[in-house]
Amino acid sequence: MDGRDWGKFLLPYEQATEELKVKLKSLRSELKARDEYAPIEFVTGRVKRVSSILAKARKLSVPLDRIELGIEDIAGIRIMCQFVDDIYRVAEMIRLRKDLKLVYEKDYITNYKDSGYRSYHLIVEYPVQTSLGSKPVLAEIQIRTLSMNFWATIEHSLNYKYRDQLPAHVKERLRNAAEAAFQLDTEMSSIRQEIVDAQQDFEESSVVVRRVLNEIQELYFFRRVREAAQFQLRFNELWEQDDVWGLKELSLEIQAALDRAGKGGQS
Ligand SMILES: Nc1nc2c(ncn2[C@@H]2O[C@H](COP(=O)(O)OP(=O)(O)OP(=O)(O)O)[C@@H](O)[C@H]2O)c(=O)[nH]1
Ligand SMILES: Nc1ncnc2c1ncn2[C@@H]1O[C@H](COP(=O)(O)OP(=O)(O)OP(=O)(O)O)[C@@H](O)[C@H]1O
Q: Where is the signal peptide (predicted)?
């Protein structure tokens, strides 16, 4: 392939990268607009430089007329997430999409690389609509947390600066740094879980509170004034003590009283 052909060759990759970036950014804004939690923090993409394609083809012994299949990351997308769990949610959303086909995946989170590198990779086939018809191109989608990205960006630039000749002790320190970054992710996930649990507890307790108050109102409706007033006093105490379990028990008692009131006469 001579120099003039590269522009044409890269066109569908440029289109694929741009379209995938727009689609994945829209996924984030759509989820946000619906007030749903958006597991995507931000999205980037790039088309591999010709010099980098040639270097990789040489390294992997891919003949130049086979690079379309032999080099999978000419079109590259990167998705950054806040939490490790989000990575797997985003991967699932991509698997379910109808506008691309999953070719294979690499879980470098569970099976992190010797360098310490962690990310989740999906190699997909994306059909680009060109003036000559549909053209499938391969694209690499890397999904990672912000701290995995922090580590990979610095490690990449160090490797670039030292031309992949990092001294052993630096490599060792980078491996330690990757471990520390992952511990940060783990710690952040557990803090988040605690907040989610606390929110669930709060929602559960407000549902019970509303239920008990409605039931007491119903008792008043049946003119069970004395009983309702007693339940109200017990409710006040339990509510002050934030005793959700006690409130649930009280609700059962009021329901029994309501049953009796429904069947029997009024007091
Ligand atoms: N910073 C950093 N990025 C990595 C590392 N390993 C993989 N990556 C990224 O992940 C991409 C795909 O890596 P691999 O799954 O190993 O793919 P590969 O084509 O078999 O091997 P590469 O020659 O490393 O691209 C690379 O092009 C990088 O962008 C690493 O150790 N450090
Ligand atoms: N899938 C991707 N999405 C977004 N950016 C990427 C992706 N892959 C690599 N990059 C970034 O593109 C820039 C150029 O990287 P380049 O494609 O030359 O090398 P690489 O992917 O890191 O390595 P290799 O050539 O060994 O595959 C770097 O800043 C790199 O972080």
A: none
| Ligand lying closest to the C-alpha of residue 119 | 1
Residue 140 annotated to the active site? yes
Number of domains in the chain: 2
Does residue 90 share a domain with residue 18?
yes
Residue span of the structural domain in which 212 resides:
194-263
- Residue-wise pLDDT tens digits, 167-208: 999 999 999 999 999 999 999 999 988 888 887 788 888 899
Alpha-carbon distance of 202 to 197, in angstroms, equals 9
Kindly report the protein residue whose alpha carbon is nearest to atom 21 of ligand 2.
Answer: 73
Interatomic CA distance for residues 9 and 19, integer angstroms: 17
Gap between the Cα atoms of 212 and 250, Å rounded? 8
In a domain, 179, yes or no: no
ipTM at complex level = 0.95
